[in-house]
Design a protein that fits this description.
The complex is a heterodimer of chains A (187) and B (180). Chain A is mostly helical and 187 residues long. Helices cover 72% and strands 0% of the residues of chain A. With 180 residues, chain B is an all-alpha fold. Classes of the chains: A mainly alpha (187), B mainly alpha (180).
């Protein structure tokens, strides 16, 4: 059954159709949440919260965009709100689980380097502003087009272009400052 | 850095993401063949994007999904019930509102006198009296209606009723129908 049909059923109060949407999209929403928070427990909690919000707001979905774009927008907004809340409350915890992530590296040395690189990358991503982080995740991790990002974040295409440019430059600077990546200037 | 290089480097992200129009894309491509500095910046950016693309996320076990799903269902159950099929479509609000307004106007016109004649309540006895006169006038022509008075002695019981017409009604019947 197509997304559209499932959404129409959900709007009529069919919880089974909603559960089907949950099964279809849970991995992608978990992916976005994890990349925003870099913490599995938080990511799962947020996935649950995002789907709860989706259930509450599904009546307002008007089929002008695809359901996945609508759900992404909701996910990104919930994550940004949560990040802001945490930022105002306490220091954002840089935790998790680089050890848990299975690496494709062949040797233990390569694996260690890869883990260290990833740790630094997360640190750099976490130093970005919420919306910069969102564009990097949507573009470079989720593979959305600029148009889809503009629709998801409800901003202009030009704004998306400039945010991506700024965010990547910031990431590069942070990584170069930490000397963790081989992304270095020759000068 | 030349102004041209600054403009090129500002567009490198969009260039790598193939988000520029064909003309701009060709210009940058051409510039990159000539400018080693911009070429290096492009390689750095490409490397960075590669690292970000490669970021992995921990897999979720079936048990963790089960817990997340259970939590979601519990929270959905706590929500106020959705109206589902019994929801009132928004388009019905306008005609319903118009109907209620019309009803209110009708009630207002019916109840409020708006300066018209105000009627006072008529006592029951007066009402009966008027009804009696009207009724009498329909049966009996004006002027021939004799005055009938019923005294206590005229009151009879069922046993006392005889076949003979009562003497008090005789003149009345005679006057009107010519019956003797």
């Amino acid at each position: 059954m197509e997304d559209v049909d499932l959404v129409k059923l959900c709007q009529k109060g069919d919880t089974v159709a909603f559960e089907r949407l949950f099964q279809m999209y849970r991995d992608r929403i978990y992916g976005v949440s994890y990349k925003m928070f870099n913490n599995q427990e938080d990511a799962l909690d947020l996935t649950q919260e995002i789907f709860l919000k989706a259930y509450q707001k599904i009546d307002k979905f008007n089929f002008r965009s695809s359901f996945s774009t609508w759900l992404y927008r909701l996910a990104v907004n919930v994550c940004i709100d949560e990040l802001r809340k945490r930022k105002s409350g306490r220091e954002y915890p840089m935790e998790d689980s680089f050890q848990q992530i299975s690496s494709n590296s062949d040797t233990p040395e390569e694996e260690a380097i890869s883990n260290e690189r990833e740790e630094l990358l997360w640190k750099a991503i976490n130093s970005l502003k919420e919306k910069e982080r969102a564009v990097i995740i949507l573009r470079d991790m989720e593979g959305l087009s600029y148009n889809e990002i503009a629709e998801t974040l409800k901003c202009s295409l030009g704004r998306v272009k400039s945010r991506i440019h700024e965010a990547r430059n910031k990431l590069k600077s942070v990584l170069q400052a930490n000397a963790g990546l081989n992304v270095s200037s020759r000068r | 850095m030349a102004l041209r290089c600054a403009v090129i480097q500002k567009n490198l992200s969009a260039f790598l993401d193939k988000q520029l129009d064909a003309g701009k894309h060709r210009q940058i491509e051409q510039h990159l063949t000539e400018c080693s500095d911009c070429r290096h910046k492009k390689e750095e950016l490409k490397e960075l994007i590669g690292y970000i693309n490669d970021v992995s996320i921990p897999t979720v076990s079936p048990q963790q999904w089960e817990n997340t799903h259970r939590k979601l269902i519990e929270n959905i159950d706590k929500l106020p019930a959705k109206k589902g099929l019994f929801r009132i479509p928004k388009w019905t609000f306008a005609p319903a509102g118009a109907f209620i307004l019309a009803l209110l106007i009708y009630v207002a016109i019916s109840v409020i006198p708006f300066g018209g004649q105000q009627y006072e309540p008529i006592p029951v006895d007066v009402c009966l009296q008027e009804h009696s006169i009207l009724y009498s006038e329909q049966i009996f022509p004006t002027g021939i209606m004799p005055e009938i008075t019923i005294t206590e002695t005229d009151q009879t019981t069922q046993e006392e009723v005889s076949d003979e017409p009562t003497s008090d009604l005789d003149p009345l019947m005679e006057a009107y129908y010519g019956i003797n």
